[in-house]
Write the structure tokens for this entry.
Amino acid sequence: MTCPIALETTGLCKRYGPVMAVHDVSIAVNEGEVFGFLGPNGAGKTTTIGMALGLIHPTAGSARVFGEPISPTHTAPLRRVGALVGSPGMVPALTGRENLAVLASLPPVVDMRRVQETLQLVGLAEAASRKYQGYSTGMKQRLGLAAALLHRPSLLILDEPTNGLDPAGMQEIRTLLRSLARQGVTVFLSSHLLHEVEQVCDRVAVLHHGRIIIQGAVSGLLANSGVRVRVPDPAQAARVLQVLPGVAGVQPDGAYVRVEGVASDAVAKHLAAHNIVPSELVPCRPDLEQVFLDLTRS
């Protein structure tokens, strides 16, 4: 069964003079998932989000939210969207609670119970009576997230939401995002923090120089990439393993041999057939940082 699509872009492009900031970006975010939009600073993530939110005219391509087209002149579907892009714009002289109360008075109007609920969700309940101008960068990010959640969005679009947060605050936000996904909220998370994306996202698209270079399930990107095996004679084992069907590479590494492209059980059986008994055999699992570096190395 095909999953309903919350956010879809097709061939999105944005040119600024001679510079193609975004080129042919096509993604489909399923309802109820946490989707990571990963790339280094300057990769085109914020520009893509701006086009998806109808804030920027695309040079080419289109964006749809819950099946409806989005453009600067057609933003009605965005009533179901909450977004935090860049630094939150709040009134410095008002408290955190007062800033949210102003936003809560805008259609569709929500009551003060929802204001207090969102402050609690983002960990600002105790600081709600302090003026915004006295907030730290992390507190401002939390209030921006509260504003994005205020009207109970079905789709939450976040651009670097953990900027300024300490490690404990980052963990709290990750836990909140997974909780929202379990409640059926779709989360689109743009970040350059690989550890953040790896921990919270179901699928990810990697953007580099304005282009999508890979996308798919995080579990698939981090699938086992080989085996590291400790043997008495690594050079001999390497020669034996070179002829194992499916092997993509064999590299002696001190007392170990690194074998690419095959599962650990196949390595063990092949070595045993040649009277080589490994003392240690460990499947190798790359982290998202290594995958990202391999993909974007240029």
Observations:
- The domain at 5-221 is CATH 3.40.50.300 (Rossmann fold).
